[in-house]
Amino acid sequence: MNIKKIALTIILAVFIFPGIVQGANTSIGINVGSSEAEGWLDTQITPYNTPLVLGAGFLYSDDDYWIANAHMDIKDQIFTPGLSLGLGFRGVFGEVEIRDVDYEVGALCFQFLGDYDFRKNTTQLPISISASFSGAPKILSFRDTERYMEFKGSFNFHINKWATAFAGYRMIDIRFEEPVERDWDDDAIFAGIRMSF
């Protein structure tokens, strides 16, 4: 794995992204699995009364891969209290090592989001469920990547207004065309915490 690229990604996340954070409707989270760790930062702003979510994250695995991402989504409550749906764009950048060969990941994905918050219905339970899907066809994939897909789902327990514990499942499926055509996938069960302010 290229340590210089990882360091550059972390530096960009630390010094550039906080400039857009306004200190309200912002969440910071971290989750860990058996061989990976992921951290992210999201903030919601409302230009022209539109709920726009901006975020960035970084996933690192001992199984020889790392993936950084940045996303922009529009997400709002629709149909019934507690149900929120959204869509947007998600850029991914990273590296996967397969049998001592490094494959470079790059894609501009369409992203679809959904969650249901039981605190907002008649049960008022302190739980919610959420899911996201990101996908990029060949025309929106670059570097060594021919296709990128990622699915994530989680069950969330809201400890209080600011803290949430969660457990979930992630699946990543990538098709590479260079240097050798190859399909690669990875899935993981994870748990973590999210702080909102």
Count of β-strands? 10
Rg of Cα set: 17 Å
Which runs of at least 5 residues are low in confidence (pLDDT < 50)? 14-23
The strand order across the widest sheet is 1-2-3-4-5-6-7-8-9-10
Q: Could you give the distance between the termini?
A: 35 Å
Count every helix, treating DSSP H or I runs of 4 or more residues as helices: 1
Helical fraction equals: under 10%
Q: What is the molecular shape?
A: globular
- Quote the average pLDDT: 84
Q: Largest sheet, if any?
A: 10 strands, antiparallel, barrel
Overall SS class: mainly beta
The percentage of residues in β strands lies in over 45%
Helix and strand sequence: HEEEEEEEEEE
Explain what this protein looks like in three dimensions.
- With 197 residues, the chain is mostly beta strands.
- It is 7% helix and 64% strand.
- It has 1 helix and 10 strands, in the order H-E-E-E-E-E-E-E-E-E-E.
- It has one helix at 3-15; strands spanning 26-32, 36-45, 52-61, 65-77, 83-98, 101-117, 127-136, 145-158, 163-176, 182-196.
- It has a 10-stranded antiparallel beta barrel with strand order 1-2-3-4-5-6-7-8-9-10.
- It is globular and about 55 Å long.
Note the topology.
Layout: H1 3-15, E1 26-32, E2 36-45, E3 52-61, E4 65-77, E5 83-98, E6 101-117, E7 127-136, E8 145-158, E9 163-176, E10 182-196
Antiparallel strand pairs: 1-2, 1-10, 2-3, 3-4, 4-5, 5-6, 6-7, 7-8, 8-9, 9-10
